[in-house]
Amino acid sequence: MGSFRRTYNFAAGPATLPQEVLERARAGLADWQDLGYSLLEAPFTGDEFKALMETTQQQIRTALALPDHYHVLFLQGGASAQFSLIPLNLLPPTATAGYVETGHWSTRAFEEGQRYGPAQVIASSRDSGFDRIPPVSQWALSEHLHYCHITPNETANGVQFQSDPDCGSVPLIADMTSEFLSRPIDIKRYGMIYAGAQKNLGPTGLVIVIVREDLLGGARPETPTVFNYQLQIAQQSRINTPLMFAVYLTHLMLVWLEEQGGLKTVQAHNISQSQSVYRLIDEDDFFHCPVIPEHRSVMNVCFSIRATQLTQRFLAEASARGLVNLAGHSQAGGLRASLYNAQPDDAVSALTSFMNDFRRRYG
Ligand SMILES: Cc1ncc(COP(=O)(O)O)c(C=O)c1O
């Protein structure tokens, strides 16, 4: 199969996937593991699919250096479903959950979390327009919090934690949807992490949940069986038909990640790509990044043109050059270039070269 790419895609997710992964997935679609039928036609109870799930789980364990007391689950409903499923599984009805509000997605998690108990915002950067991460020293962490929820990378606002925070004895839960497997993490800082797969792993709908053993055991009776962490752990995420194709693509993405050199290598690569765009933005006053330099996202570069009337022209001209999906999130506006693991260097050079040219012509 020759290159089918006619565009450089900067979408925030679903997002660019490596061409070689798509080609491998195509082969599995036609005839999976020489079974003579497609993966889409394979029984989820068959040995082949069970082995695929086991391998994929092991790949995640290896990539993140997960100790045995963390469980890995493949669930459905995307990351948003977890906003409700976390309290249903982990929060007694009268206990308080703490939320750090740093942008659109942490706000969504908090709003949903409030439906299940006395949720509390324990730190927020709302007043400064979500332009930074509030320092841990200023979070209202207290022993009475059952857990503390964070969104380490805010996809819509382009703000990212620069390290894994230490919350002491309060279990930390992180929505890593838009930074999952883009950098090594210090897993012992977390009680639970979860991530929708449609950024660095590919397929929508699948959410990977990694949860520490000691947090389990208190699911509310009304928790749906298929979303009960403990019951799904006991059944290897196969209480009902799993998202088979999504798990398969995740497996292929993890193979590809390993071929790239693993998390440290992709992290360095991701930082270098985002820096080249931020450098250009900071060169003068034509473009503007609202996030303070220390907390800018490596994954989602959010920016604007100060002369806002030029935004639509920028998008139209970019698109004519094959640079697509650069509009900012609907709530945040402006522009956004998403640079997940699979974004090729050529795409970033084409973008910076276009931005330079646009600035020269309209600046
Ligand atoms: C950080 C973050 N959390 C949650 C979500 C919601 O994911 P889903 O659409 O899979 O529910 C997104 C989607 O972009 C996201 O970026």
TrEMBL record:
Catalyses which reaction(s): O-phospho-L-serine + 2-oxoglutarate = 3-phosphooxypyruvate + L-glutamate; 4-(phosphooxy)-L-threonine + 2-oxoglutarate = (R)-3-hydroxy-2-oxo-4-phosphooxybutanoate + L-glutamate
Localisation: Cytoplasm
Positions where N6-(pyridoxal phosphate)lysine occurs in the chain: 199
UniProt pathway: Amino-acid biosynthesis; L-serine biosynthesis; L-serine from 3-phospho-D-glycerate: step 2/3; Cofactor biosynthesis; pyridoxine 5'-phosphate biosynthesis; pyridoxine 5'-phosphate from D-erythrose 4-phosphate: step 3/5
NCBIfam families assigned: PRK05355.1
Subunit structure: Homodimer.
Function of the molecule: Catalyzes the reversible conversion of 3-phosphohydroxypyruvate to phosphoserine and of 3-hydroxy-2-oxo-4-phosphonooxybutanoate to phosphohydroxythreonine.
Protein known as: Phosphoserine aminotransferase
Gene this protein is translated from: serC
